[in-house]
Amino acid sequence: MTVVKAVNVVKDYSLNGIEVHALRGVNLSFEGGEFTAIAGPSGSGKSTFLHLTGCLDTITAGEISIAGSNTAALSKKQLALLRRNSIGFIFQAYNLIPVLSCLENVSFPLTLLGVNKREARERSLEALQDVGLVGMENRRPKEMSGGQQQRVAIARALVKQPALILADEPTANLDSKTGKEILELMVKLNKSVGTTFIFSTHDDMVMDYARRIIMLRDGQIEKETVK
């Protein structure tokens, strides 16, 4: 099943009065269960593509469809529902809620989905077990290492069982050993759950683990490699 389809996607914006062409007619599709890295130098458009795919920004021209829904045709409310129901996010800065415990951070998306408290707790505990954080349920983000916080972020992204997980530079703030552990964890979860993972990265280690690599330069696809 095609999870994401991008057709002639263009993204322009103004930066300090200068017109920036972030994406210039990008055509891509991603099938269920993919583990794909979008790479390229700074300013190549890789993070822009992820933000557009995640409905965090709007395209200038073209079309992006998520699970068959054309995002350009959806209202703000419909986009919010699509993000909430079908997309998980993993950011380089973790983006955990500092006043919530590890368990509460993971449960938060389920609360938004209206899952009852007991089921949300059970599913969140299972997700934390999957990422190796048993016994840390009550810790807050400031009491955890960067690698542990990223594991919480992965559990939070996976707990609602989305069709798609978007990871924006997920290893950028981690040392190489922790980054390797995080990537191996995501490979394991990708294979066991079948969730589609799309990364934006400039990290060679991420590209080593990816089964498909898309290189962007100046907002266009430079080359594509399938292993």
Could you characterize the architecture of this molecule?
By secondary structure, this protein is an alpha/beta fold. The protein has one domain: P-loop containing nucleotide triphosphate hydrolases (Rossmann fold), CATH 3.40.50. The chain is 36% helix and 31% strand. Helix 6 links the parallel strand 7 and strand 8. The mean pLDDT is 93.
Task: Provide key terms for this protein.
227 residues; alpha/beta; Rossmann fold; 6-stranded mixed beta sheet; 4-stranded antiparallel beta sheet; 7 helices; 36% helix
Largest sheet geometry: 6 strands, mixed
Per DSSP, what share of the residues sits in E-state strands of 2 or more residues?
Answer: 25-35%
What helical percentage do the residues reach?
25-40%
Question: How many separate domains make up the residues?
Answer: 1
Helix tally equals: 7
CATH topology grouping: Rossmann fold
The oligomeric state is single chain
Q: Which stretches of 5+ consecutive residues score pLDDT under 50? A: none
CATH architectural label = 3-Layer(aba) Sandwich
- By secondary-structure content and strand pairing, the structural class works out as alpha/beta
CATH class: Alpha Beta
Q: What's the CATH H-level superfamily name?
A: P-loop containing nucleotide triphosphate hydrolases
